[in-house]
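Narrative summary of target 7.
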Amino acid sequence: MELNQRIKAEVEKIPLVDTHEHTMPEAERSQYAVDFGYLFAHYNTSDLVSAGMPPRLMEAARLPMHHYRVAYIKRRRLRRVIPEPEREDMSLEERWQAMEPFWEAMRNTAYAKMTLIAIKDIFGIDDLSRDTFLKLSQAIADSRRPGWYRYVMKEKANIALSIIDVQSTEVDRELFAPVMTLDHFIDVRSRQELGYLEAEAGTAIHSLDSLVKAMQTVLERYLDSGVVAIKNVLAYVRTLEYDKVSRHEAELAFNRLTQHLGEGPSFFEAKPLQDYMMHQVIQAVVEAGLPLQIHTGLQEGNENIITNANPTHLINLFIEYREAKFDLFHGGYPYVQEWATLAKNFANVYADLCWVHIISPEVGRRLLHELIETVPANKIMAFGGDSITVEMAYAHARMARQVVTRVLSEKVTEGYLGDDEAIALARRILRDNPAALFKLSV
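Modeled conformation, tokenized:
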């Protein structure tokens, strides 16, 4: 058997441990999986807008997913504004006509290729076009049946378990293991937000110490609910540079915040409090024995400040908290070499390729080649689907297996790895490493 085919066969056998998903609850799927717009829940929309589609028109074209997206952003407590749809009474045909020219413009991107894989493999339709959108819409509507997630994830994708961030611990534990965030205790900027934290923690917050205590109370609740990690996504709203500030500086910032009845102090006034709270969160997460997942690099959506998400901003945290386990997401793209260097240099930094293969399979291949040559094998994790829909998680898993197969085949061909060594490495990076980091029984 040809080398590539031998390695491919072994890679296909591996039940994946998926490091990161946002999959909507299966019970909610029937509300949204009604037509082709369901496939535009997430990444595709970024490229539609990048291709020139007006955001309000895009939101109208992907109805009803617009309504899920609004709820999703609110649940994750991100300060992101989603424009109201241009019209809510557009027919299915009008919605396709609005999207078609921009879909044709973006269909070269990896996001589109992922979509086409899902359409063909799961719904049995070769393309998304004016000739197929009605048939595809019907196939999506017909898929709303019990057991769909197990069919797609277990039978089709061969995913053993997915780490999921939907900001709820009430998930199907046969398919998912939950993570939660404590970002709202860090990125607090108003008295109103303090009120939300008081309601969640069930305690009054009148001082910096009581804010820390409230955070610890909520973390304990998460632990009791079986979370396997804590997630940080604040690179969407601020820099990843968390300075070491004194308690006095943080207390002054907290006091300024409580003196405002409106939106509160500016980010620069609030930053000492946020930086202090990030350090408190890390200390609490370490005490709890959990890894900390951190979003680095590219932010989903459009018109983000990419420099905020440079993973090198985190170096002071890696130095100070050597007992922590930092799971760095997304290859740090476009800061991929800086990101890889951090995983090489710091024992407490793990290299997580979630999202990377659908940003660019070529980047995924180059980066995996580099990681194999530079980072100890026990710290590389090769797949996280990072998708809202289960079908896109399947397609991303397929793309990830293709990348791993090709890279390992090339490494054997060039004599860098032996056959058995390559297959053992595939098991490590696709299953064993994340299972060990998140303490999963799979």
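The longest strand covers residues 16-21.
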